[in-house]
């Protein structure tokens, strides 16, 4: 099956499974979303949703967050991966928002990616989910599914993002980002997954890929 045909068929299945995919990170403003997405690196969304209520009770705006000492922020997010680095980034970016952006989260990629702790993926999530700008943030779920389904070479996340943007219409990007994530979590895990019975892998993955995954998971030998 051609790559474009796979993409078209996958989009239909994902759209039926998740017609209105919710944003998994709890937030109530572009600022709280930015902080939640920053915290989600090397950490599960579930963990982030456990720590952000306490943090946001103390500070849910850039001005309030900048008033906190780094050690106070760290105490709130300690159970997140890379917590010391993230605590400093949160404090520093909050001050930058005050100094350069009138305490508001900027709605352009260049300004977002210039903030401490904010890379292209984080900026893409904020642009898509806070401002409705078409973007296709690629996380680990999306990266591995795109490779499994033969939609990208999977060499790196930048290449995966570029490949997916070519295959899917721009109007679907923001929903597909979330649909991929939910499908990966609920139907297509990285390990112990039988590709031959999967709603998408069963027809999108090559026979070679199915055999390789089965061997890796202790199934049939090549």
Overview of this structure, please?
- By secondary structure, this protein is mainly alpha-helical.
- It folds into two domains: 3-20 and 137-216, Endonuclease Iii, domain 2 (Orthogonal Bundle); 30-131, Orthogonal Bundle (Endonuclease III, domain 1), CATH 1.10.340.30.
- It is built from 13 helices and no strands.
- It has helices spanning 3-17, 30-39, 45-58, 62-66, 70-77, 83-101, 109-113, 120-131, 140-148, 157-167, 173-186, 201-204, 207-216.
- The longest helix is centred in the middle third of the chain and has 19 residues, at 83-101.
- The chain is elongated and about 55 Å long.
- The two termini are 22 Å apart.
Gist of the model:
The chain has helices at residues 3-17, 30-39, 45-58, 62-66, 70-77, 83-101, 109-113, 120-131, 140-148, 157-167, 173-186, 201-204, 207-216.
Throw out a few tags for this protein.
single chain; 222 residues; mainly alpha; Endonuclease Iii, domain 2; Endonuclease III, domain 1; 13 helices; 0% strand
Which helices and strands appear, and what pairs or packs with what?
Blueprint (H helix, E strand, L loop, with lengths): L2 H15 L12 H10 L5 H14 L3 H5 L3 H8 L5 H19 L7 H5 L6 H12 L8 H9 L8 H11 L5 H14 L14 H4 L2 H10 L6
* Low-confidence segments: none
Number of helices: 13
Query: Structural class given helices, strands, pairing?
Result: mainly alpha
Helix content: 55-70%
Question: Mind describing the biggest β-sheet?
Answer: none
Radius of gyration: 19 Å
What is the CATH homology-level superfamily of the largest domain?
A: Hypothetical protein, domain 2
Report the mean per-residue pLDDT as an integer.
95
Shape annotation = elongated
N-C termini distance: 22 Å
Count of folded domains: 2
Q: What is the CATH architecture descriptor of the largest domain? A: Orthogonal Bundle
Q: What is the CATH fold-level name of the largest domain?
A: Endonuclease III, domain 1
Order of helices and strands: HHHHHHHHHHHHH
Number of strands: 0
CATH class of the largest domain: Mainly Alpha
Strand content: under 5%
């Amino acid at each position: 099956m051609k790559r474009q045909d796979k993409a078209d068929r996958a989009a239909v299945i994902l759209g039926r499974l998740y017609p209105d995919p919710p944003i998994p990170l709890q937030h109530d403003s572009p600022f709280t979303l930015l902080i939640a997405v920053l915290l989600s690196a090397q950490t599960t969304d579930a963990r982030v949703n456990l720590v952000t209520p306490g943090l946001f009770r103390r500070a849910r705006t850039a001005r309030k967050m900048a008033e906190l000492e780094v050690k106070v922020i760290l105490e709130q997010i300690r159970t997140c991966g890379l917590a010391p680095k993230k605590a400093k980034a949160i404090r520093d970016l909050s001050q930058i928002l005050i100094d350069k952006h009138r305490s508001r989260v900027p709605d352009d990629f260049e300004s977002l990616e210039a903030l401490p702790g904010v890379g292209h993926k984080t900026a893409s999530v904020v642009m898509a989910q806070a401002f409705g700008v078409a973007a296709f943030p690629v996380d680990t779920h999306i990266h591995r599914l795109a490779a499994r389904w033969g939609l990208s070479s999977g060499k790196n996340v930048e290449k995966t993002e570029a490949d997916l943007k070519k295959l899917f219409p721009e109007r679907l990007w923001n929903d597909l980002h979330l649909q991929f994530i939910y499908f990966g979590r609920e139907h297509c895990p990285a390990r112990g997954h039988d590709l031959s019975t999967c709603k998408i892998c069963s027809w999108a993955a090559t026979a070679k890929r199915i055999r390789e995954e089965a061997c890796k998971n202790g199934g049939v030998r090549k």
